[in-house]
Amino acid sequence: MRKGLHPLVMIALVTAVTLFGRVLPTWTLSLATIAASNALIALGIVVLARTGNVSFGQGLFFAAGGYGVALIANAWGLTDAVAQVIVGAACGGLLGLVIGPLIARYSGIFFGMLTLALSMVFYGALVKSTALGGSDGFNVGRPSLFGMSFTDPREADFMLYAVSVIVTGFAGIAATILFRSEFGLASLAVRENNLRVEYLGLSANRIISINFLIAAIFAGASGAFALMAQRHIDPQFAYWTTSGEFVFVAVLAGNQSVAAVFVASMALELVRSFSNLYLPNTWQLVLGVFLLGVILFLPRGIGSLWIRDRHKRRISATVPLTAERGAAP
Amino acid sequence: MDRSWRTNCAIILATIATTSFTLAAPLSAQETFKLGIVTFLSGPAADSFGVPARNGAQFVIDQLNKGSVPSPYEKVGFGGMKIEPVIIDENGGATKQVQELRNLYQRDNVDVVLGYISSGDCLAVAPIAEELKKMLVLMDCGTPRIFEEAKYNYVFRTAAHAAMDNVGLVRYMKAKNVKMDTLSAINQDYAWGQDSRADFVAAAQQLYPNVKVQTDLLPKFGAGQYGTEISALVGAGSDVVYSSLWGGDLQAFVLQSVPRGLSKRSQLVLSAADHVLPPLGDKMPDGTIIGARGAYGLMSQKSPLNDWLFKGYEAANGVYPVQAAYRITQSILGLKAAVEKAMSKNGGKKPSTDEMVAAMTGLEWPSPGGLIQMKLADGHQAIQPIAISRTKYNPDLKRVELVDIQYFAAECVNPPPGVKSIDWIKGGMQGAKCN
Predict the structure, then answer these.
(1) Range of the domain at B358
(2) Where is the signal peptide (chain B) (predicted)?
(3) Residue B270's domain is classified under what CATH number?
(4) What are phi and psi of B201, to 5 degrees?
(5) Rounded to an integer, what is the distance from CA B319 to the centroid of its chain?
């Protein structure tokens, strides 16, 4: 069985990617920031999916994080990027703490539909709140870092890039460790057979709730990044197409590798951007063909391009869904 | 799936990635002006606004590059520089628009970005252009919040905001002695609908102090089915039914309400409706009071510039130009005027962003829809005249004509500098200069 990379190697990788931002062209920096932010929320979906439940309403926590940060920033002038990420994660997490235990009793399509419904309720409420700008949303100021404010556009973009890559990177490392842990394996067992898990003396509901909470925290932090990158928030954050896009990143990435989530997210942003530039009338078609192509030719996600573990596949042929065990970046 | 297959996939993906990067390399352009244009090419607003705007932009840029635009725009392109447009789709939400705006400036090296129809997109992209210190010309979006809530140096809007549409309508009704003791409204439940409704009701309460608001409906955006809403409106039987619906929603509402006699019971007043006249044809009830967000299309005033746009656009696209085509035209002509003004000051070189910004601030220029004056927000927000009229179907020409047209001067229907538009309306529209 493949053991995966040592956490220290992963930290080195994150540092390398961060420093690589110094040589990237400016336009890629903000694109990578959005990609990292989308990767973070998709990572949450992958974490939750290991219990066999897919949330189609991560936009709820994404918007909760974004609106929480935006309102606090405008009311109390909190502009520090790291503080904003913590606030976003806390907002998402608090909401996840309330909703998680309620929703953990459902599974499969009911789980997915309920999360979707909750996010759309939030969307509806936001559209009606004219004090928050209604469907047009509102703007926030640019973030600072540890008391430094960045006026040069490139430096400001690099700061955001660095913070988002580091936070998302560490979330990825934490997820890898989580996947290998006892709790992570118990989550997989819930997907396989939650009754047996209960007979082992573990609470399946509790395991789902905790995974849901982790996904909500990631989504809240991701909302904070999206807000910092675009300095504007509107109810679209909670709309179902937004949530759907995150699920798509997760599907594209597959569940074999945490790094695949980042690669998939970046690839999706690049394809979208270039197809919009060169084929402004048919960019959705290009995006669709790309997604179809990945699903048809890489059914196990982009991660299967470099995770090739025959042993694992042989097992998965007989006992499906154990492939995650060796999840490595 | 064996290994070689996967390797192939990896190679293909890598090739695509490299090609995209090579294609992305900026083409050095000496004597051209690279203009980013953002408009809806897909989604609900494409058919009504986005595509007419794109067609308008293509027509105007083509004519400018040939040097065949009437005076005072005879010069080729922008001050002799050929215009090289980069057109992208506005659909996809504010997050995508912010990203694409950065890409236009930082990757594609456009000189100026011009466009945006959705208010949400305008609000989102304005601060980004300001931070990047790049010139951004907003051409259409309705919300007054852009310059009322923030100050921008690099951002301009070359069209009046939505307050004008509703003040103009109420002034027209007053001038034509339309009875309005009771009022009902139907607007989409998003910012445009909510704001339009608030502006219209506030303006109506100023000029018709005894007006009573009866049924006030906010169906969701893109609802398409208005059976219950029409029942409520017919039941209320108000003197006036106001609506800011547009595009497919407006067409559906008109088609569903006419057979039920709504237009016979109540006077229909529509704030942005000229773009549905060609598709609706004889389905549009006669006598409906409509606005076009300016003196546009069939309401435009005769001038050599307007004849050029109206006839040229109709010949190129098979349909006469409406609101969006006019708005992008006035935007491009304004930018041309600013660029040429800047060039006359710097000795004919291609002007820098700061030179163009200085030239555009407070600028005035003639457009097919009348004189555009950058009078609000320290010279960054335009005011313009508006026309309101009634519909009348002409069976010979098989198209809806507009009759009873009345023009209102820009300063009659737009707030003066330094006042928020809703406060101005509620305060009795002080300082309005109407003749």
Answers:
(1) 29-160+302-383
(2) 1-24
(3) 3.40.50.2300
(4) -60, -40
(5) 18
Please write the tens of the pLDDT for every residue from A169-228: 888 888 888 888 888 888 888 888 888 888 888 888 888 899 999 999 999 999 998 888
Question: Residue B184 — φ and ψ, nearest 5°?
Answer: -120, 155
Per-domain residue ranges of chain A: 7-254
| A91 neighbors A65 (Cβ within 8 angstroms) | yes
pTM of the model: 0.81
| Structural tokens at position B311 | 């006839």
- Residue B289 to residues A292, B187, B284, Cα–Cα distance (Å): 49, 16, 11
Q: Is residue B199 located within the same domain as residue B255?
A: yes
Closest residue in chain A to residue B119, using alpha carbons only = A136
Q: Is residue B80 part of a domain?
A: yes
Query: For residues B339 and B162, what is the distance between their CA atoms, to the nearest angstrom?
Result: 27
Please list, in sequence order, all residues whose beta carbon lies within 8 angstroms of the beta carbon of residue B282, skipping any fewer than 6 positions away.
Answer: B393, B395, B398, B400
Q: Are residues B333 and B421 in the same domain?
A: no
Residue B133 and residue B77 in one domain: yes
* CATH entry 1.10.357 includes domain A7-254: no
Best probe of the B interface among A230, A269, A270, by most B CBs < 10 A, is: A230
Q: How many CB atoms lie within 10 A of CB B341?
A: 18
Q: CA of A268: which chain B residue's CA is closest? A: B17
Residues of B in contact with A239 (CB under 8 A): 93
Question: What is the residue-wise DSSP string for B224-245?
Answer: ---HHHHHHHHHHT-SEEEE--
Residue pair B260/B232 in contact (Cβ under 8 Å)? The answer is no
The answer to whether the peptide bond before residue B219 is cis (omega within 30 degrees of 0) is: no
Does B183 share its domain with B156? no
Tell me the per-residue pLDDT of B182-220, one tens digit each, with 9 for 90 and over.
999 999 888 888 889 989 999 999 989 989 999 888 888
Q: Determine the Cα–Cα distance for residues B140 and B310; give it in Å rounded to an integer.
A: 19
Share of chain A above pLDDT 70, in %: 91
Pair (B287, B419) in one structural domain: yes
Domain count of chain B?
A: 2
Range B173-197 burial, b when 16+ CB lie within 10 A, else e = beeeebebebbbbbbbbbbbbbbbb
In a domain? residue B169: yes
Contacts A127 to B, Cβ<8 Å: 189-190
Q: Check CB contact under 8 Å for A30 and B94.
A: no
Asked if the structure places residue B405 within a domain, the reply is: yes
* B372: in domain: yes
Rounded CA-CA distance A50/A186 in Å is 10
B267, B198: one domain: yes
C-beta of residue B180 within 8 angstroms of C-beta of residue B207: no
| B328 — pLDDT class (breaks 50, 70, 90) | very high
- C-alpha span between B312 and B322 (Å, rounded): 13
Q: What ipTM, to 2 d.p.?
A: 0.77
B181 and B307 share a domain? no
Tell me whether residues B103 and A273 touch, CB distance under 8 A: yes
Contact B99 A273 (CB under 8 A): yes
Distances (CA, A) of B276 to A59, A217, B118, B395: 35, 46, 18, 17
Query: Which residues in chain A are closer than 8 Å to B149, comparing Cβ atoms?
Result: 138-139
Rounded to an integer, what distance in angstroms lies between the CA atom of residue B122 and that of residue B137? 10
- Measured between beta carbons, which residues in chain B are less than 8 angstroms from residue A283? 89
CA–CA gap between residue B100 and residue B108 (Å, rounded)? 10
In chain A, the residue whose alpha carbon lies closest to the alpha carbon of B6 is: A305
B187 in the same domain as B87: no
- The reply to whether residue B86 touches residue A277, judged by beta carbons under 8 angstroms, is yes
Instruction: Give residue B386's pLDDT.
Output: 92
Rounded to the nearest angstrom, the minimum Cα separation between A10 and chain B is 23
Q: Which amino acid is at A147?
A: G
